[in-house]
Design brief:
By secondary structure, this protein is an all-alpha fold. The protein is built from 7 helices and no strands. The chain has one domain. The chain is globular and about 45 Å long.
């Protein structure tokens, strides 16, 4: 998961590029739209409240990260801001949408994002930053079976070390 600051910077950057008041030359007017963009880009992770309340990690990177939910939020922003502020609503909507896309790019298969809800509940990941363990095996196959449970939250390096320890123990038993 990218840090909230990464989501915030991306959201603010999108607002800076798309917002109708950009380039922001007035220092005071400059802050509020960028802060709103940064805040909206972090909003999908509010699903941690559901994880906390329901004690179920599978809620994380669920519907709040989907493209359809982002579209609904964008339409609500458009309704709130009005047709005269369509471009501002687009900037804020894209800032919100960027969260799911960034998670999609940076998470592994097992921790992927339900980007296509409600059409598909599959967790998707671009696997761009997928790591390999010490044996050169891909972690993705192992992670696919762990979708949505707490085991999927264990960092790969830790799992690789645990598995390496088990293999060493097995080979030691074989030597005796
Ligand atoms: Zn997220």
């Amino acid at each position: 998961m990218p840090l909230p600051i990464a989501h915030g910077l991306l959201g603010a950057s999108i607002v800076a590029a798309v917002h109708p008041d950009a380039p922001f030359t007035d220092g005071r007017r400059f802050r509020l739209p960028l802060m709103v963009g940064a805040l909206l880009a972090n909003c999908p992770d509010a699903d941690f409240l559901l994880v906390w309340a329901l004690h179920d990690r599978s809620w994380h990177r669920g519907f709040t990260h989907s493209l359809v939910f982002a579209l609904v939020v964008s339409l609500l922003l458009l309704a709130y801001l009005g047709r005269s502020r369509t471009r501002a609503a687009l900037a804020y909507g894209l800032a919100f949408t960027s969260h799911g896309v960034l998670d999609f790019i940076t998470t592994k298969v097992g921790g992927g994002v339900k980007l296509l809800l409600p059409f598909s509940s599959q967790r998707l990941s671009s696997q761009v930053l997928e790591s390999s363990n010490a044996n050169g095996e891909s972690e993705s196959e192992e992670n696919e079976s762990e979708t949505g449970n707490q085991k999927g939250a264990v960092p790969c390096a830790v799992r690789a070390r645990v598995r390496g320890g088990r293999e060493r123990a097995a080979s030691n038993n074989g030597d005796e």
